[in-house]
């Protein structure tokens, strides 16, 4: 997959798996990752699906309706890519924390829904429920931050609460941060994600 790997100045820090929103690229989330932890390593990936010229991580049938077969296939493709990247760039596969926005948050959610031990944690910015009616793997103690909008027209608050419950029921430790700026990513949301990250990974100074 097309990507950027940026080795961090502190290799004990997590590797952020950066996953952009629809129409984005692998450069989009680099500044946000830098705000959250400038010493971490970054593996930023471009989605392999193109919809009207816009990169995405999996196909959709229409707005908010996912092509589940493609979602499953692309989730496996991303998991395999992370494993290849760990071998190529010599990072610890147990230390990967996803940071995804919108469509990128949805594929990160799908990694959590389908595979145990792929992500050490996740920062999901405006995610939806990737799939319904499946048993999740154990996410015992996997820390997950959800950034949501109480007026997000794409990721409705009910869906945020549903996602939070599904992840919590699988054992994850979920923190939900609410904003009121629709589907937009906001500075205060990133600051909240950073504070959560520092507390969760005991990196505060
Ligand atoms: C999706 O298709 O993943 C969601 O609708 C979010 C988006 O608009 O990308």
TrEMBL record:
Pfam families registered for this protein in UniProt: DLH (PF01738)
Gene3D superfamilies named in the record: alpha/beta hydrolase
Protein name in UniProt: Carboxylesterase
GO MF term (any one): hydrolase activity
InterPro entries for the chain: AB_hydrolase_fold, Dienelactn_hydro
Taxonomy, superkingdom: Bacteria
Occurrences of domain Dienelactone hydrolase (ranges): 77-186
